[in-house]
Amino acid sequence: MAQRRHDPEQRFPPPGFGRVGTRVLEVLENVVYAGIALLLVLAALALLVLAGRTAWSLTGDLSQAPMLELLDVLLLVFIVVELLFAVRTTVEKRELVAEPFLVIGVIASIKEIVVLSVEAAGVVGEGAGFRDRMTEIAVLGVLVLLLGATSWLLRRKEREPDEGEGGEQGVAPGRAAEARG
């Protein structure tokens, strides 16, 4: 009996445009990812140059403003490098991995908390301005906790055995006896 074309058990890829079209899209996807990676590397290098200039300016001015600017730029470098890691991971695994983006969110939130904390210190006792900054810091703090918890849950889920593997292979050693009865 001949296999039908839509048979899920068919072991051979469909002939014609499907295979060629998929390959063309894969190559174009790699070109786009390479472009993104190149732009992220250039951005990271430009930010490092800016950080170096800011650090050099600290030799003449040890005030709070250049220190905050340096910290701000360095945290941006971390964000860009983490984005580059996320792109590399996506290309290597051929799937979108959430954890690098969660780390980026944590770093970006912490960066804003640091900046807002310094700004809030400058407007202590000014009422609405101080209150607004403190509210933003609180919201960002909760966001950091939620992103951290999400990352933790993802890691925990990755350690669990796959569902549907059958038998007791996916059962933890302590639960094997419970599963038998």
UniProtKB/TrEMBL annotation:
GO CC, alphabetical:
plasma membrane
The protein's location, in the record's own words, is:
Cell membrane
Give positions of region: Disordered. 158-181
List the transmembrane segments: 31-50, 70-89, 101-125, 137-154
Q: Could you tell me the membrane topology recorded for this protein?
A: Multi-pass membrane protein
* Domain of life of the source: Bacteria
- Main location (coarse class): membrane
The reply to whether Cell membrane figures as a keyword in the UniProt entry is yes
- Name one matching Pfam family: PsiE
The record's listing under InterPro entries reads:
P_starv_induced_PsiE-like
Record's keyword terms, sorted? Cell membrane, Membrane, Transmembrane, Transmembrane helix
Q: Carries keyword Transmembrane?
A: yes
List the protein's name: Phosphate-starvation-inducible E
- Protein source organism: Geodermatophilus africanus
The organism's taxonomy opens as: Bacteria, Bacillati, Actinomycetota, Actinomycetes, Geodermatophilales
